[in-house]
Amino acid sequence: MQDPLVWRVISQEAAHDYRIFQTRWVKAVHPTTGDVRKFVVLDSTDWVNVIALTPDDEVVLIRQFRAGTNQVELEIPGGMVDPGEDPRAAAERELREETGYVASSWRSLGVVRPNPAIQGNRLHTFLALDAVPRDTPTFDAGELCETETRSLASVTEMLREGTIDHALVVNAFTHLMLATGGSLRRP
Fold it and tell me: Fewer CB within 10 Å of terminal CB in the chain, N or C?
């Protein structure tokens, strides 16, 4: 039996290609009224983000300019999963490319849908333990990051004060809290 909340899709049409995502129009029929509505959907590859902890429980953070806010944001490393790439491999690559850090132990913390109202992709969050600087960062053409470390204990206050306010980064730390029984600490 079909869920009574599911709209019946009657057509899909590509709209635009924006390099990091594509848009398409989806026409669907309302399940009870029969009205036809046109929705826009953003298609993107999956994403990853990484909470990397040093042996001293310092969190590896990056500062980078974000065009959407027109300012420098404090975040954790992350990025897009390349076609055919395993999410963990993408997480390892992004950590190394953006910070030069590598980690000896990896753990998946969870997967969420960034915004199911308009997107179908997923965000995979990983915990990288005992991260150490090993390489020089190798930024993509559209990246320029500064790496810094902060104590894991200080992150709660940064979240509370809004120093870290990127929703997907806040989500990553929420995953860590859930994995550790409600506090930000090493599992």
Answer: N
Assess whether 55 and 147 both reside in one domain. yes
pLDDT tens, residue by residue, 18-67: 988 999 999 999 999 999 999 999 999 999 999 999 999 999 999 999 99
pTM of the full structure = 0.93
Residue 95 sits in the same domain as residue 160: yes
Angstrom CA distances, 179 to 109, 131, 176, 187, stand at 7, 19, 5, 7
Task: For residues 35 and 73, state if they share a domain.
Answer: no
pLDDT at 69: 95
Is residue 115 in a domain? yes
Average pLDDT, the chain: 96
Give Cβ neighbours of residue 90 (< 8 Å, ≥ 6 apart): 46, 48, 79, 80, 81, 82, 124
